[in-house]
Backbone:
């Protein structure tokens, strides 16, 4: 389980996160939504030990990321913009991560096959399309076969086949008892994937519940999102 509890983040004189709390539970896909600058990336970076909170906690199975034993086998993460060295091949990048984590080389070939990158594994990452880069990030996240996945914009740049693959994979992962937390701006696709939705605006949680609860009286998740995050909803009609 992922537990965010009263998380506060100040950067200089600006309050980025204002005491937010929510959970991402096992067996469910949780969508984390919000406008640019709302605090999504800051939350994920604190959760993954890449930044420090001013106060509060972000826990993975009850522990901060830094206290996890062999963290790659506990949580796999693919953050938007976090890629491999352009001159390395996809396989070399994954082998480097696996070696650092003490994982067998055979697992590299397994995740290449899972993500559909086997044929492109020998090519340099600099030649990858945006979609291929996303698949490589997913492969890296899966190396330790973790019980928790944290994904930032996982379908951005993927073609329809890739989007469908991600959706099916994440649903299967959750149905096997794993925890999936993902952020995305693609509302229609998200509505096809998630069980629960958390919406953040200006560092505060404005919605937290099941997909049906968050949509409420609105016809779609997109409509609910704009109603909750836009100061003057009529401007988006």
Residues:
């Amino acid at each position: 389980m992922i537990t965010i509890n009263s998380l506060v983040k100040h950067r200089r004189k600006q309050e980025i996160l204002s005491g937010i709390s929510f959970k991402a539970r096992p067996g469910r896909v949780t969508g984390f939504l919000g406008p640019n600058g709302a605090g999504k990336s800051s939350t994920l970076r604190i959760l993954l030990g890449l930044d420090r909170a001013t106060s509060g906690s972000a826990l993975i199975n009850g522990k901060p990321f830094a206290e996890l034993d062999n963290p790659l086998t506990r949580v796999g993460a693919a953050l938007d913009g976090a890629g491999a060295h352009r001159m390395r091949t996809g396989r070399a990048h994954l082998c480097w991560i696996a070696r650092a984590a003490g994982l067998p080389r055979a697992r590299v070939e397994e995740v290449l096959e899972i993500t559909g990158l086997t044929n492109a594994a020998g090519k340099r990452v600099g030649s990858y399309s945006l979609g291929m880069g996303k698949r490589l990030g997913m492969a890296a996240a899966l190396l330790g076969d973790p019980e928790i996945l944290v994904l930032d914009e996982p379908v951005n740049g993927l073609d329809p086949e890739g989007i469908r693959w991600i959706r099916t994979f994440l649903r299967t992962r959750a149905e096997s008892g794993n925890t999936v937390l993902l952020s995305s701006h693609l509302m229609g696709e998200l509505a096809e994937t998630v069980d629960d939705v958390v919406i953040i605006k200006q560092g505060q949680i404005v919605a937290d519940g099941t997909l049906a609860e968050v949509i409420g009286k609105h016809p779609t998740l997109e409509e609910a999102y704009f109603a909750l995050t836009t100061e003057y909803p009529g401007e988006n009609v």
